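Just wondering, can you check both lines?
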Amino acid sequence: LHARYVLQLLHETRKHLKQLPNISHVSTCYSEEVTVCGDLHGQLDDLFLIFYKNGLPSPSKSYVFNGDFVDRGKQSLEILIILFTFLLIYPKEVHLNRGNHEDHMVNLRYGFRVGLSTMLRVHGKKILRMFQNVF
């Protein structure tokens, strides 16, 4: 995606997240299933496998992603774009919890910042600041 679209997605995601309470309550009934995932760490293949086995998020398929979306793996940006897009499309079915890897200091140590700067050379710093704001 062009940097302009990434920034627009981040802006919309931030606006949506600011409206939410700090604690989300997710409940189901016996006929409804929730898939809980954690620690993707930039491994896009893992996210695709989860969606392949459980289905894509939809009004009938809820997900809770328990943080640590970035760092270590090479496709953190792609994971965030996918998760933020699903969050905006299905705000009642997709829930994102911040993990310790969604922290500026951890990003410096484990690779998200460097990976983002390498991938988006022109607007990398601006996009990184916006990601930190969303986190």
User: Anything to note?
Assistant: Strands lie at 34-37, 62-66, 94-97. The first strand starts at residue 34 and ends at 37. The chain has one domain: 27-132. The chain has six helices and three strands.
